Here is the input.
Amino acid sequence: MGWDNKSPPPPPPPPPLPQLEPNHHQHQNNDIVDGGNGAAAVGGVLYVKVMTDEQLEILRTQIAVYATICEQLVEMHKAITAQQDLAGVRLGNLYWDPLVTSAGHKITARQRWTPTPMQLQILERIFDKGLGIPSKQKIKDITAELSLHGQISETNVYNWFQNRRARSKRKQPNTAPSNAESEVETDAESPKEKKREPENLKLQASSTPGAEDLSFQSREISSEMLSVD
Amino acid sequence: MGWDNKSPPPPPPPPPLPQLEPNHHQHQNNDIVDGGNGAAAVGGVLYVKVMTDEQLEILRTQIAVYATICEQLVEMHKAITAQQDLAGVRLGNLYWDPLVTSAGHKITARQRWTPTPMQLQILERIFDKGLGIPSKQKIKDITAELSLHGQISETNVYNWFQNRRARSKRKQPNTAPSNAESEVETDAESPKEKKREPENLKLQASSTPGAEDLSFQSREISSEMLSVD
DNA sequence: CTTTTATGAATGAAGG
DNA sequence: CCTTCATTCATAAAAG
Here is the structure.
């Protein structure tokens, strides 16, 4: 498979030290069993299925490794799930069924607010009036008004203006800098009205072999950033 | 634009699981081994570590089950991360621990820090648990700990707590346990506690306090499977 | 039905 | 602390 083009595949967990402590009780009792089909006396010699300590150890190790891997995977899943759950109200991505979802699950798909045409019209009208971000009180009023046309909350209104402004700004950097044409990264000519510009990728200059550039930002916060209270 | 969509089910590659293939050679030839440390002659009786066919079968089954589980988990993880992996070609989000630095992929650093699931989990725990505002020293400690799970700076931690607090606060007036619940399909969310401010629609409160069931137990499986007895 | 686009919402970071 | 901004994520809606 040559899918190693882009998407970093899920890194298989590094099998850490397989520590098998949960159940140490492996048949250490030495019995020449004959119980099941494990032993057979042939010609006066007792033949049994035998495993040496070494072999047993190998098996135990293997099982332990699997257990560890499973635990890690489970932990990872929890973490990821937790993130998506906590970080986002909406989830409903994948819910895998194999051994967890035995019963029919009902993933509560979070619906997002969608403005009705009427609401949108009103919102647009208000927005076009040129006012910036409506104050909180303004938002309340608007919300009240829009409530007559459909389900809506103040947050919806707030978000709408927030997004509307941000995106209209992104759409047209046409601030018309009359003469001094600064070097700007403007490469988006939006033929449409409100079109988001596919942003290009960011910097990538880790030419250092074997060293990922993982410096995010480590500004010094010694001054007043952290001086709380 | 459309890069942040779900990825179509990619050709299911074989699970990149460590081939911990057990020594399947279950000694079909019956030998009373004594070679290793598995046998000992005591008082004229030969004691060896013995496993019946049944026991062997159990072991093999266990290993097989683990293998299957691991496969499924890996598959699930792929499904989970698929979207996000594809979502950002530029965001080689390391989800957990170290191994992301396997290949010299273009793990370009993002512009803004994004907590890994592990980090988020820890942060969340700290936030929930005790105190409210971590002191400067506390932040240092937390940062140090979180550094083990990914790049992070003290500023990140500080900001996170700041935002976390501010946004959780803006969500409290949701103290209506006596909700009539008139089954509105408009919106259904289970605010565990995070989130910003859904500021839900009037009597719209299916706020099931943390009724998430999206996690499964590994403990159960593990214990069951590891009990060879 | 699958892919693409539009856009509501979450959130890290900056400002005050 | 609180507000604002920028960027990102996820999904409804639209296109193919």
Notes: The longest strand of chain B covers residues 39-42. Chain B is about 35% helix and 5% strand. Chain B touches chain A through 127 residues (CB under 8 Å). Strands of chain B lie at 39-42, 45-48.
